[in-house]
Write a structure and sequence with these properties.
By secondary structure, the chain is α/β, with parallel strands linked by helices. Helices cover 32% and strands 14% of the residues. Helix 1 runs parallel beside helix 2 and helix 4 crosses helix 5. The protein binds phosphoenolpyruvate and manganese (II) ion. Phosphoenolpyruvate (PEP) binds next to loops.
Length: 266
């Protein structure tokens, strides 16, 4: 049986639209924003610079899958309200993580693109329910997921009725702690050979180090990725989560200036 996600089932690339932004049409939309939504001031500062410099969508976690249960877990629905406020002010569609099946309807009522985090890539009840959520889904690769497992996770969403899935390579576990994870850049063309779904790269979670984000953004573009996801923050050293891998807003501007503007948006 041919999988719905496979090239055998559909030879041509899928184009996944999030409002006016298209993934998979040869453009290179950049999703950017803080790891966690912390405050109105923090989020608006990010959104303003992202909109000005050609970013496509605003990300920000309101429900955070933190390694320790004692760390900041996100602002919850208040964070979602702030994301919507930023969308109204700056015209950027909103990307945010949904962690639980029971929260899909609520998160989907605010977000334009629902993120499934690496830790939930094989949460099958969540994936099945996202098949019926009526919104596009950004499916991150699991921390130690093979490409086959990642494809099968996407298959759950398509098989349950939702064709709008964007895959996100965010690095995998390996032996060297110099970087937080190892960016499997080969997974981009390898997945694109096997599946018609768009594949974007997240160099922030892949490396955990802000100095490596711009070079790997270039590598992602060169290897044919369908877009990028990066974390940025007005004051990364004070960030409530993932500060070490967040660009400050000047660094974000510089990274955007380095990418060819003709392909940023379609
Ligand atoms: C995130 O995007 O902030 C996040 C938690 O990512 P991941 O699931 O890839 O670790
Ligand atoms: Mn993060």
């Amino acid at each position: 049986m041919n999988l719905l996600v496979s090239r055998e089932c559909q030879a041509e690339d899928s184009i996944v639209r999030v409002g006016e932004i298209a993934f998979g049409d040869g453009s290179f939309p950049v999703i950017a924003g803080p790891c966690s939504v912390e405050s109105e001031e923090q989020l608006m500062a990010c959104a303003e610079v992202i909109a000005e410099s050609g970013g496509a969508l605003l990300r920000g976690g309101a429900f955070k899958p933190r390694t320790s249960p004692y760390e900041f877990q996100g602002l919850g629905e208040e964070g979602l309200r702030l994301l919507v406020l930023a969308r109204e002010r700056f015209g950027l569609g909103v990307v945010t993580e949904v962690m639980a099946e029971s929260e899909i309807a609520m998160v989907a009522s605010y977000a334009d693109l629902l993120q499934v985090g690496a830790r939930n890539m094989q949460n099958y009840p969540l994936l099945r329910a996202l098949g019926k959520c009526g919104k596009p889904v950004l499916l991150k690769r699991g921390l130690s997921a093979t490409l086959k497992e990642w494809m099968m996770a996407a298959e759950y969403i398509l098989a349950n009725g939702n064709p709008d899935v964007i895959l996100c390579e965010r690095g995998i576990r390996s032996f060297d702690s110099h970087t937080r994870n190892v960016l499997d850049i080969a997974s981009v063309p390898a997945m694109q050979e096997m599946t018609h779904l768009p594949v974007v790269v997240d160099p922030s979670h892949a490396t955990g180090r802000r100095s490596l984000i711009a070079p790997l953004a270039k590598a992602s573009l060169a290897v044919g990725a369908d877009g990028l996801l990066v974390e940025c923050h007005p004051n990364p050293d004070k960030a409530w989560s993932d500060g070490a891998q967040s660009l400050d807003l000047n660094q974000f501007r510089d990274m955007m200036a380095m990418l060819p503007s003709r392909i940023l948006k379609s």
